[in-house]
Amino acid sequence: MRQGPREGTILALDVGTTGVRALLLDPTGRPRGEAYREVLPTYPGPGLVEHDPEALFRAIGEVARTVLGGAVAPGVQALGLSSQRGTAVVWEAATARPVHPALSWQDGRTAERCRTLLAEGVFVSPLTAATKIEWILDRVDPERDGVRAGRLRCGTLDAWVAWRLTAGRVSATDASHASCSGFYDLLARSWNPAVLEALRVPPAALPTIGDSSSVLGRVDVAGLPSVPLAAIIGDQQAAMMGQLRLEPGEVKITYGTSAMVDLNAGPEPLWSTRAAYPLVLWQRDGVPSFCLEGTAITAGAAITWLRDGLGILESAKESAALAASVPDAGGAWAIPAFQGLGTPYMEAGARAVLGGLSRATTRAHVVRAMLEGIAWRCREVYEALRADSPHAAPAALRADGGAAQNDVLLQLQADALGLPVERPTVIEAAALGAGYLAGLATGVWRTAAELHQAWHRDRLFEPTMSPAAREERFAAWQRHVAAAREA
User: Fold this and answer.
1) Is 443 part of a structural domain of the chain?
2) CB contact set of 268 (below 8 Å; sequence gap of 6+)
3) Which of 178, 397, 413, 430 could bridge across to 14 with cysteines, CB 3.0–4.6 Å?
């Protein structure tokens, strides 16, 4: 007779690009408490995106205390951490104080540096942390005396958060974050000496690479439970665990600031010819699994821009009702490329474009056009992944993230793909996946199979557009992409 899950709750944190979320998971793997604080990045110039790490850490404390009811809840067994991945932080080892604002994975200031390195035979993407760490060190420690002496530490955001959560006792990242850092050798499964030398980053300044699901140390922060820090994982990989995309070929899409499409590649990496990334999906017991990931760099951020930039929305939630109030976009179209175009183009200089406007165009048409643009961009990303995959196509695509609440977007996505789209009851899959991994590391759950009973579908969106109409509209939209690429 199969044993049920053990007792104990898990505190799961997701430190995202636009805010911080906490979930408290019960022994069945279902959330019993949730809190969120928006912490937006700043944009000091075109293509520049920065975070205040201290503001993010304050938000961690706020959301954690909220879900714990203002006190340390009894029975909390462990903490799991999910984080945005390619964001770069350099901090003082003694005080944990960041020496410069964190440079977001979206920040494009090192794109030219990446092109120069590529010409020298060193491949580093501008979406990863490596050249951003170099950029910060060049300004605060140009001779690298501080990092060589151990006074400065550097890494992706998760490493800094782990350092702060454990009062400097844990210097660690997991293989999923490491594979997004720009410093990682996917074949050797360690830091890449050639990249470290080119950027003049001593390996001792970086965290140790470990499992995504293991006990790293104990939390030592006032107001938080002194429990094991038992999982660190990149947010997109965590969402794959939260969506239980455990088999090769299975796919999920996360609508956050960007839209990230991930395909489970299995025990060996898949190499892309279409600007997708082979990454570590997670590592357990020293054994990595891999994924192939593609990026539509602007997704939810386009809706935020409609709210904050144009003022045609009072809230992101309003976008669904407004888009549903018109049968189509009335000839309007949008290319959501506010921080460039990701997969399959990888053009950092591309810019967003709105077109097809007339005097009859209303704000509802503009909102619907932007949602259509997100769906078409995600189709481009999905097709790039599928073209490089030997695995059978999935029966459905699972969607999560804040914009997955938007029924119009998910219906447009099903129509754009010609593929059913499943929305789970819990759309905050990144925090959920971090919690699952922390529970697996501490025995709250014995196997991932136990968690399947916790996943429930909220709604299935079936394609309604004919194949001929789908291809005709996609071809028309793709012709407009040229305007963004030439901007």
Assistant:
1) no
2) 290
3) 430
Residues facing 13 on adjacent strands: 22, 81
Say if 65 falls within a structural domain. Answer: yes
**Residue 69 to residues 224, 381, 392: CA-CA distances in angstroms?**
11, 41, 45
Name the residue range of residue 169's domain. Answer: 9-235
Query: In the numeric block, which tokens belong to residue 448?
Result: 């991932």
Residue 464 lies in a domain: no
**Lookup: tokens for 120:** 């020298």
Residues 6+ apart with CB under 8 A from 164: 57, 96, 221
| Distance, CA of 212 to CA of 178 (rounded, Å) | 11
pLDDT tens, position by position, 283-329: 999 999 999 999 998 999 899 999 999 999 999 999 999 999 999 99
Q: Rounded distance, CA 259 to CA 298, Å?
A: 7
In our burial notation (b when 16+ CB lie closer than 10 A, e otherwise), range 447-461 reads eeebbeebbeeeeeb
Q: What CATH number did the domain enclosing 38 receive?
A: 3.30.420.40
Report the number of distinct structural domains present in the chain: 1
Strand-strand pairing, 353-355 and 333-335: antiparallel
pLDDT digit of tens for each residue in the chain (487 aa)? 344 445 689 999 999 988 999 999 998 888 999 999 999 999 999 889 999 999 999 999 999 999 998 545 558 999 999 999 999 999 999 999 999 999 999 899 999 999 999 999 999 988 899 999 999 999 999 999 999 999 999 999 999 999 999 999 999 999 999 999 999 999 999 999 999 999 999 999 999 999 999 999 999 999 899 999 999 999 999 999 999 999 999 999 999 888 999 999 999 999 999 999 999 999 999 999 999 999 998 999 899 999 999 999 999 999 999 999 999 999 999 999 998 899 999 887 889 999 999 999 999 999 999 999 999 999 999 999 999 999 999 999 999 998 999 999 999 999 999 999 999 999 999 999 999 999 999 999 988 878 888 889 999 999 999 999 999 999 999 999 988 887 6
Tokens of 333: 């179209």
The answer to whether position 421 is within a domain reads: no
Contact 111, 128 (CB under 8 A): no
CA distance 229 to 217: 6
